[in-house]
């Protein structure tokens, strides 16, 4: 019994690290975009398209890292398009995001058909469990380098928002476009760059899905993770470090179902599968209030108005 | 006295002038979406050319598979019915400024509850009891499911777009949990499904059309809602709220009640779509309920500019696109996501074309010449 419990806890721990990485990248991308005062719901589409691109390029080039880079570039193209379109008058950023989500997943399914069968080289894992004799521990401590890369991006973003000129410009644009304009900065350009960079991060998150975990390209790969990132950013109050914590929490929630199944408890598997969605909804219900705006929320964000 | 002089100072628009002005203004709402459709078709043709496929063959097959023969019309109209209803699920809340994209979830869950409520009735109740009970259950499920989104939006300030999409994934999990678990029909070896509702309880065809009654329901509901939104106080209040929530509040309009009731009507529409998918097509609830009608419905509603009556022809168009999908796929050797790419493209171009409204003097009744 105790053994089963420790197996489950270890599996949830390992799963939290594994499953959290795409959440981490997408939410950091969304955080950057939203800080500039715009929202990109199309990150879900970018995630799926990035996963397909990463897998295809890794298959053709033989190097998963080139795949990751290609996924990021594809993501930034989508982001750039979103950034450019939203500056046109009367174009609604939320609706364009939904459209880009459908378009991005459509394109990914279209071009991804031939890559469902072949096996592409995967990203290697860092074996941090070498000191232990227990195979489960060694398994749990196989951590992908992208996890640490995401952590590094989170720290850099957090630091940059507070301490750099660029960070200040992005925050100012998100809080008051009039002020930014008065200071002589182009609001459209700042938001364009922030959306493009956000798209890059989401694309990398997608590459993690296909190149590390679950580690193959299938059409049901993402199932809304890009959208949950939006809720995750709200929960994290637009703080990149809190995004990291929230992503790990989500990863853990998503890992409960498979962990229980690994010790033979399959009852309610589908409800545990729904856990991240229910958790997201609950977090939003508990953390959002119509009476006051949230601390850290960019004032120009259409989502919060 | 002063009033008369003032009004005579402005050029008083004659009845005919006003009518022409109105026509020009509404022409804008037809010409720009049509233009968006043509641009998307051109872009998609370039996409096909880049892949070495013939756009001409594509559009010929699209025509043949969707509208060319009596059989293809039947296929199209069968797909039109759920599209009308899921598009209404987007259109009604959109009048209040809400973007609800989780209609698919309401469809799936309502189809499921309709199939489940029939189970204990099958052994003893006649069809004229089973059918209305199923329909009502589906409508109520949908109304509560999407109504909850409206309530969350009003009372907690939660973004309805994200909430409704999250609830879609939750609805799918609920369906899978029961269909693969306690409610799985053990006699069905293939796909995990609930027990069949039986041929007697299935919805029949509209005489002479070979299309089930869902189409008639969809068209009637669309017309009724079109009248409600344009001719009643409810519709007017909804439009005011959609235009400016603060103004609506200042006028003393019950914004919360409006939001919840509009989302409940919307959800009921998607629920009815779910009922017909189960009771006219599948005969039971299973994973085939997740067919993407809810997501195409979003596009249909946007293309119809959230006008319930305009939804009907647009839904026929997209029903044809869906019906022709299989033929195009087989004949041209294209992946099944081809139609999805075209739909996504249309959606993006359509939203970008929003920027064109008000830019052309042609449509401006005040501009002379």
Automatic annotation (TrEMBL), chain A:
Topology of the protein relative to the lipid bilayer: Multi-pass membrane protein
Pfam family, one: BPD_transp_2
Keywords tagged on the record: Cell membrane, Membrane, Transmembrane, Transmembrane helix
Segments traversing the membrane: 6-29, 41-59, 65-85, 94-112, 143-161, 189-214, 243-263, 269-288
A GO cellular component entry from the record: plasma membrane
Compartment(s) of residence: Cell membrane
GO function terms (MF aspect): transmembrane transporter activity
The protein's name in its UniProt record: ABC transporter permease
Species name: Prosthecodimorpha staleyi
Species classification: Bacteria, Pseudomonadati, Pseudomonadota, Alphaproteobacteria, Hyphomicrobiales
């Amino acid at each position: 019994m105790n053994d089963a419990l420790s197996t489950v806890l270890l599996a949830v721990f390992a799963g939290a690290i594994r499953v959290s990485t795409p959440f981490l990248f997408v939410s950091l991308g969304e955080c950057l975009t939203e800080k500039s005062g715009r929202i990109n719901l199309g990150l879900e589409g970018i995630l799926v398209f990035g996963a397909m691109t990463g897998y295809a390029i890794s298959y053709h080039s033989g190097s998963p890292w080139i795949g990751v880079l290609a996924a990021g570039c594809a993501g930034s193209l989508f982001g750039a398009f979103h950034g450019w379109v939203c500056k046109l008058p009367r174009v609604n950023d939320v609706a364009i995001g939904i459209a880009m989500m459908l378009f991005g997943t459509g394109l990914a399914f279209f071009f991804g058909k031939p890559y469902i069968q072949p096996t592409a080289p995967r990203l290697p894992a860092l074996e941090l469990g070498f000191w232990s004799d227990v195979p489960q521990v060694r398994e749990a401590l196989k951590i992908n380098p992208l996890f640490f890369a995401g952590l590094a991006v989170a720290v850099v973003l957090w630091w940059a928002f507070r301490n750099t000129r660029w960070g200040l410009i992005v925050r100012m644009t998100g809080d008051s476009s009039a002020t930014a304009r008065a200071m002589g900065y182009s609001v459209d350009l700042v938001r364009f760059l922030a959306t493009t960079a956000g798209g890059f991060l989401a694309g990398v998150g997608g590459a993690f899905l296909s190149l590390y975990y679950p580690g193959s390209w299938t059409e049901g790969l993402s199932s809304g993770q890009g959208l949950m990132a939006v809720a995750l950013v709200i929960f994290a109050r637009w703080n990149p470090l809190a995004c990291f914590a929230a992503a790990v929490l989500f990863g853990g929630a998503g890992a409960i179902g498979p962990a229980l199944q690994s010790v033979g408890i399959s009852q309610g598997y589908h409800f545990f599968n729904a856990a991240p969605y229910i958790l997201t909804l609950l977090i939003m219900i508990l953390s959002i209030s119509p009476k006051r705006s949230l601390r850290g929320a960019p004032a120009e964000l259409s989502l919060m108005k | 006295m002063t009033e008369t002089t003032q009004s005579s100072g402005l050029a008083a628009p004659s009845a005919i002038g006003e009518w022409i002005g109105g026509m020009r203004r509404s022409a804008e709402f037809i010409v720009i979406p049509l233009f968006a459709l043509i641009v998307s078709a051109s872009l998609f043709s370039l996409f096909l050319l880049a892949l070495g496929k013939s756009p001409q063959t594509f559009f010929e097959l699209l025509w043949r598979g969707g509208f060319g023969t009596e059989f293809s019309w039947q296929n199209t109209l069968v797909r039109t019915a759920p599209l009308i209803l899921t598009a209404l699920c987007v259109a009604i809340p959109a009048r209040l400024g809400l973007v609800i994209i989780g209609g698919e979830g309401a469809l799936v869950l309502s189809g499921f509850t309709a199939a489940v409520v029939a189970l204990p009735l099958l052994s003893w109740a006649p069809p004229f009891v089973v059918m209305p009970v199923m329909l009502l259950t589906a409508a109520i499920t949908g109304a509560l499911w999407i109504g909850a989104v409206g309530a969350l939006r009003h009372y907690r300030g939660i973004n309805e777009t994200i909430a409704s999409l999250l609830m879609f994934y939750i609805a799918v999990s609920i369906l899978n949990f029961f269909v693969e678990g306690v409610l799985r029909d053990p006699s069905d070896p293939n796909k995990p499904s609930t027990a069949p509702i039986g041929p007697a309880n299935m919805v029949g065809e509209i005489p002479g059309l070979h299309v089930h009654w869902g189409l008639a329901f969809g068209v009637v509901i669309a017309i009724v809602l079109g009248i409600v939104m344009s001719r009643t106080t409810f519709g007017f209040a909804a439009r005011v709220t959609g235009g400016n929530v603060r103004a609506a509040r200042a006028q003393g309009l019950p914004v919360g009640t409006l939001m919840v009731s509009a989302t409940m009507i919307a959800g009921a529409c998607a629920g009815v779509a779910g009922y017909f998918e189960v009771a006219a097509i599948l005969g039971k609830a299973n994973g085939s309920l997740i067919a993407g009608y809810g997501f195409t419905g979003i596009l249909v509603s946007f293309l119809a500019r959230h006008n319930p009556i305009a939804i009907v022809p647009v839904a026929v168009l997209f029903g044809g696109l869906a019906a022709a999908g299989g033929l195009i796929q087989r004949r041209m050797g294209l992946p099944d996501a081809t139609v999805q790419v075209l739909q996504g493209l249309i959606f993006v171009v359509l939203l970008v074309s929003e920027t064109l409204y008000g830019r052309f003097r042609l449509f401006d009744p005040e501009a002379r010449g």
